[in-house]
């Protein structure tokens, strides 16, 4: 549960007042809570832990990290609930 | 022995290793705190590539591993109650309790579900007003903001059928406990990058000043780890002890203040038992009085729990870095990821599972002569 995964924010919205968004993890899309990064904009990259974006990260770095994570299939599947394509 | 061409950028890894060889004149022992880092180090064989004498000691940073047996037994007692819908991160399901595990309870008909986020558990409570939804809230500073938000959300929605069974641990007090342990061999730390993404890095300044021990905030990719090791060894060789940030692409000095604020609102710091290690002062979080209604441990009286650890499991020594999994008589025989006797064999962040999946049969050579 401690493996943070970087992804790109694609959309943001409010769900009953809560700041949420869709984050694309190299092809897998998830609903993510953005309350802790209220200034984040679509197109920016974040690191997500258990459904929460906790920090912004540089785009090129995030893509590189995703490539490394693809090689760690099991750990990512445990974190996201599915494998990276 | 692994080879450099398995790395994402083998040339960069070779350069970092070359520089490390140039810098290291003496044996040094470094602890990586985070279980995710342990996994990368063992899987990529980083510890086997290091110059002789530079030794990685694996730390207690596996949240699954340090969750007390008593908490697990309590979780199972609550999950077995009629009307409970029990939720947890997936990696907690196979951790052996005194008598059984959550997966076995589910097979017997208890409603135990894996959620990806604690917010999914809140959603279940909203959809099932006739059931009581309990979430097993474990983890370090990385998951605490998520669990805090789940409580704030449930409170905001007025949900009376949601609660957390909390077993939260904090990293800096655990590092202090490692340094205070008799016979401590750790001379520098690689601090967990994502914990620092939440908490920032100034919280290590007192530790660095008091123990004169270098702390390098480090990411969890192979190159991050090599660079973090190089930075820590360079400090040691130069007689410096500072907080340095290798993982600047994700970690800012002050961390995520909004997340820290939510954690402060919902939880308060308390003494905490670490499985296999013992109680460490001020190393955990419990729900603040204002949110006591969301505390599953208060809500459900499960009577007195008699906990029983497996005698053959040396997880405590593995978690504090005094032993490695291959020192354990059960490793790879009675204890495998399919038949785990202890938590470090279950979690992908556990040292025993990391050793097993990398096919390790012996510990890396202990401190030899430096070339
Ligand atoms: S190998 Fe199994 S029994 Fe031995 S310390 Fe690790 S988890 Fe415990």
UniProtKB/TrEMBL annotation, chain A:
Species: Pseudosporangium ferrugineum
The protein's name in its UniProt record: Hydrogenase expression/formation protein HypC
Domain of life: Bacteria
Family: Belongs to the HupF/HypC family.
An individual GO BP term: protein maturation
Entry-linked InterPro entries: Hydgase_assmbl_chp_CS, Hydrogenase_HupF/HypC
A GO term, aspect molecular function: iron ion binding
One Pfam family linked to the record: HupF_HypC
Coiled coil: none
Automatic annotation (TrEMBL), chain B:
Presence of keyword Metal-binding: yes
Domain of life: Bacteria
Keywords noted in UniProt: Iron, Metal-binding
Gene Ontology BP term (one): protein maturation
One Pfam assignment: HypD
Membrane-crossing residue ranges in chain numbering: none
MF (Gene Ontology): 4 iron, 4 sulfur cluster binding; carbon monoxide binding; iron ion binding
Family assignment from sequence similarity: Belongs to the HypD family.
Record-given protein name: Hydrogenase expression/formation protein HypD
Lineage, top ranks: Bacteria, Bacillati, Actinomycetota, Actinomycetes, Micromonosporales
């Amino acid at each position: 549960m401690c493996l943070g995964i970087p992804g790109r924010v694609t959309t943001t919205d409010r769900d009953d007042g809560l700041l949420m968004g869709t984050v694309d993890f190299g092809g897998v899309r998830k609903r993510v809570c953005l309350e802790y990064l209220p200034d984040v904009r679509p197109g920016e990259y974040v690191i997500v832990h258990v459904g929460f974006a906790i920090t912004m990260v540089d785009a090129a770095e995030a893509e590189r990290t995703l490539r490394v994570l693809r090689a760690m299939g099991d750990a990512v599947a445990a974190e996201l609930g599915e494998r990276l394509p | 022995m692994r080879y450099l061409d398995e790395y994402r950028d083998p040339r960069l890894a070779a350069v970092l290793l070359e520089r490390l060889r140039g810098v290291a004149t003496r044996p040094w022992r470094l602890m990586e705190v985070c279980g995710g880092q342990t996994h990368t180090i063992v899987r990529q064989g980083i510890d086997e590539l290091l110059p002789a004498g530079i030794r990685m000691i694996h730390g207690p940073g596996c949240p699954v591993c340090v969750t007390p047996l008593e908490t697990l037994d309590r979780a199972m007692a609550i999950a077995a109650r009629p009307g409970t819908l029990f939720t947890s991160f997936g990696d907690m399901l196979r951790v052996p309790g005194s008598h059984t595990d959550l997966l076995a309870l589910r097979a017997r008909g208890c409603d135990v579900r894996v959620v990806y986020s604690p917010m999914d558990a809140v959603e279940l409570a909203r959809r099932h007003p006739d059931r009581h939804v309990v979430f097993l809230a474990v983890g370090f500073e990385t998951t605490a903001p998520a669990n805090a938000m789940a409580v704030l959300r449930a409170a905001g929605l007025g949900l009376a059928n949601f609660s957390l069974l909390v077993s939260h641990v904090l990293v800096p007090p655990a590092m202090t406990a490692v340094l205070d342990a008799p016979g401590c061999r750790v001379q520098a730390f690689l601090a967990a990058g994502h914990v620092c993404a939440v908490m920032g890095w100034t919280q290590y300044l007192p530790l660095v000043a008091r123990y004169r021990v270098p702390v390098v905030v480090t990411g969890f990719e192979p190159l991050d780890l090599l660079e973090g090791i190089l930075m820590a060894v360079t400090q040691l060789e130069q007689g410096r002890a500072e907080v340095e940030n290798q993982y600047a692409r994700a970690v800012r000095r002050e961390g995520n203040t909004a997340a820290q604020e939510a954690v402060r609102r919902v939880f308060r710091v308390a003494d905490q038992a670490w499985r296999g290690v013992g109680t460490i002062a001020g190393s955990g979080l419990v729900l603040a009085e204002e949110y006591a209604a969301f505390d599953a441990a208060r809500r459900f009286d499960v009577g007195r729990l008699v906990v029983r650890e497996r005698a053959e499991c040396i997880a405590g020594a593995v978690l504090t870095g005094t032993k490695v999994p291959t020192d354990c008589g059960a490793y790879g025989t009675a204890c495998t990821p399919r038949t785990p006797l202890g938590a470090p064999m279950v979690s992908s962040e556990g040292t025993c599972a990391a050793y097993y999946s990398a096919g390790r049969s012996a510990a890396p050579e202990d401190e030899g002569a430096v070339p």
